[in-house]
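Q: Protein A?
A:
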Amino acid sequence: MIQEIGRKHLSGGTVSREGQGKTHTSKPVFSRFRDLSREQLNVELQVHTNWTDGQATVLEVVEAAKQRGLAELAFTEHVREGTSWFPNFKDEILSVTRGFDDLRVYVGCETKAMDENGRLDVSQSVLDACDIVLGVVHRLPDGQGSYLDFKQLSFDETAEIEFRLSMGMIATAPIDVLGHPGGMSLRRHGRFPKKYFRALMTAALDRRIAIEINSSYLVDMPAFLTLCEEVNPLVSIGSDAHKLSELGRCRDQLLELGVGRS
């Protein structure tokens, strides 16, 4: 079934959809897993502030990132298609970071899949303003303008729908990173099928999209890293930080697990 789904989504797909393309002024450079050096782990590429559901200000995050020796930082705020505050958010980041020349900072967003065809809940103007876009599954659309109730779905149903939504984003959405892959299944059931992880990694590599190693969602980090070693996808390092204490958490876990060439 996975191969069939993969063929359906990947045949004829393009990274930019009509009406949802984006331009970059600068963006992170993602490495394949086996090529990661310890220096390349020293990044934090998913951070949320008090502009949405995070606890700290932009300035507090930047100061904490510098104190923890991070080399790169991406602000990836939650957005929706009707988000109107993003220009002010970007202006604040650009203003705050002028005095932090030793820290490379990216303006980005986290946006959810709206259907299995890769449609995202984000406006073109926000995409155009971003250096990095994370595509995620947060809810499961019912195809009728609403969402399915997680409580009414089995593990198998949740995992398959999440997989299809993720494959749709990989195939056609203008994203740089597939954020917290399998996250809804992991949060609700504590697992996500290995075959789905493997298929997502393989498809994302074909599209030059990074798979996020997310220390907030992953239940079994070593098992996920074993799959990364097997498939060798492009990877993005993200703690999904909503508090200052969480900055650099994914980096630290990966270092503890021996990831990264010396």
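Q: Protein B?
A:
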Amino acid sequence: MTSTGSSPQQAGPLLHHLLGVPARHERVTHVEHVPARQAGQVRWPEWTPEVLVTRLANRGVTGLWPHQYEAADLAHRGRNVIISTGTASGKSLAYLTPAIASCLGGGTVLYLTPTKALAADQLRGLRELRITQLRAACFDGDTPFEERTWVRQHANYVLTNPDMLHRSILPRHAQWSTFFRRLRMVVVDECHGYRGVFGSHVAQILRRLRRACARYNARPTFMLASATASEPGAFATRLTGLEMDEVTVDTSPKGSTTIALWEPPLTELRGEGGAPVRRTATAEAADLLADLVLADVRTLAFVRSRRGAETVALSARAKLADVAFSISPPSPPPHHHNTTLHPSHLPIAVHPSHLPVAVHPSHLPIAVHQGNIHSHPGAGTVAVAVAIGAVANRPNRRPHSRPPHLGPAGRLRPRPRRPPQQDRRLPGRLPRRRPEAP
């Protein structure tokens, strides 16, 4: 898939370059050209707090696009709404505007997200606004116990996940009574992940949340956001049990995009029942990455798992190392400076921070500006058409400020966890022992 912001004609040469090998011609099953889209008129709702307008103007945001304006205004008027527009269309600003307005008006906001990483990213953005009256905090499994009391008593914008809402907040709703009495808005981000059995559990948790709010005479507005929800209005109604308005027309700007569906070739191997076996998607993606970096094309690859991302990155680096050693000149004398490209310095990494090629798992919300990315192949089977569009729009998003930890040879490694909490048992109390079997 290729995305171009300033040069729509570049997609053609890139695809022709990848198809330069005759054996690859049959691997492209479909090519779709999506034209560029101009942005709609931007403006702020009349009720937007002046301090928020000033802070966002300092960051280059001069107003809301029409779909953001519509969703924000519906939520401000107390209408439950789901905004389902493309990736990088500004859904976060659509719910942040009424949410921050509620906080500045004396209310509270509950933000639900399926991952702690996304909550931390949202918290970082809220703190960068530097609004004194906005007291945002995360409440999840990593929150120290001494901080949880402060969150319950003082935070007016709480970011958490359905698990913590189910296991910690709702069973102790009396301790959160002050927060629930002033609850004005509930934001459910990335709501398309709540489907199947897990989605049915989250639906019950949201109904428990509504009952807890009713106990304290609160009727919060629910606002959902998703880029890949099918039938967003009906889906949001089933998830929350409430009537929902939907905003689905995307009016954000977008560069022209060429989407090519690539199918790995058949191999000589045979599988079950003698069926032919195709080459793995990770191996095919590694070849494409190597070809693109040799053509000096900035590339972002989306892989279905962390292990797959590591495999694609290392395989592409190995292919580039073979090319580098094959074209490198003989070793210079010791007194000359050696400029030969070393395999460990090849321009491929697992994060797109100013690097020609980057590989990252598709489930992590990370990408770079659209103008810096010319191609971004996705490795793995895409189940639905909307998922293709979501991946294709990822380069529109801003850079992530926290790159993943890299181990030797660019391997991903988990972030260091906090040290385990000290034993909080009361002094003098012995641990409970299990009775011994007779």
